[in-house]
């Protein structure tokens, strides 16, 4: 008898796009992934995972998007500018990584 291995669809519905943010304003990096088991969404900035649990400025929205409140940008401190990726994980299936989106900050 043949063993039929069912394929479970797991994919991004929305991936982040390059965005121009304004200092002091909020910005959203969009991301949403689809799977029958809800994926765990995390964000990487410049290759490192963001710890959003203790972050008072950045938060993960219910759909997986990243909200940055009050973008910070000064001559010596540019914590928000950089390259972002959305990482979706379903433990039984694995991990998918979105395209890389660049966040650039414009001065006022």
Automatic annotation (TrEMBL):
<dbReference type="InterPro" id="IPR036179">
    <property type="entry name" value="Ig-like_dom_sf"/>
</dbReference>
<keyword id="KW-0677">Repeat</keyword>
<dbReference type="Pfam" id="PF13927">
    <property type="entry name" value="Ig_3"/>
</dbReference>
<protein>
    <submittedName>
        <fullName>NEO1 protein</fullName>
    </submittedName>
</protein>
<comment type="similarity">
    <text>Belongs to the immunoglobulin superfamily. DCC family.</text>
</comment>
<dbReference type="GO" id="GO:0098609">
    <property type="term" value="P:cell-cell adhesion"/>
</dbReference>
<feature type="domain" description="Ig-like">
    <location>
        <begin position="9"/>
        <end position="104"/>
    </location>
</feature>
<keyword id="KW-0393">Immunoglobulin domain</keyword>
<keyword id="KW-1015">Disulfide bond</keyword>
<dbReference type="InterPro" id="IPR003599">
    <property type="entry name" value="Ig_sub"/>
</dbReference>
<dbReference type="InterPro" id="IPR003598">
    <property type="entry name" value="Ig_sub2"/>
</dbReference>
<dbReference type="InterPro" id="IPR007110">
    <property type="entry name" value="Ig-like_dom"/>
</dbReference>
<dbReference type="InterPro" id="IPR013783">
    <property type="entry name" value="Ig-like_fold"/>
</dbReference>
């Amino acid at each position: 008898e043949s063993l039929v291995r069912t394929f479970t669809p797991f994919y991004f519905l929305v991936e982040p796009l390059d965005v121009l943010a304004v200092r002091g304003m909020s910005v959203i990096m969009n991301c949403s992934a689809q799977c029958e088991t809800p994926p765990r969404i995390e964000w990487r900035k410049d290759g490192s995972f963001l710890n959003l649990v203790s972050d008072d400025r950045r938060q993960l929205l219910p759909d997986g998007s990243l909200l940055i409140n009050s973008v910070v940008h000064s001559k010596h401190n540019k914590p928000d500018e950089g390259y972002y990726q959305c990482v979706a994980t379903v433990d039984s299936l694995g991990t998918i990584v979105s395209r890389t989106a660049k966040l650039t900050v414009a001065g006022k």
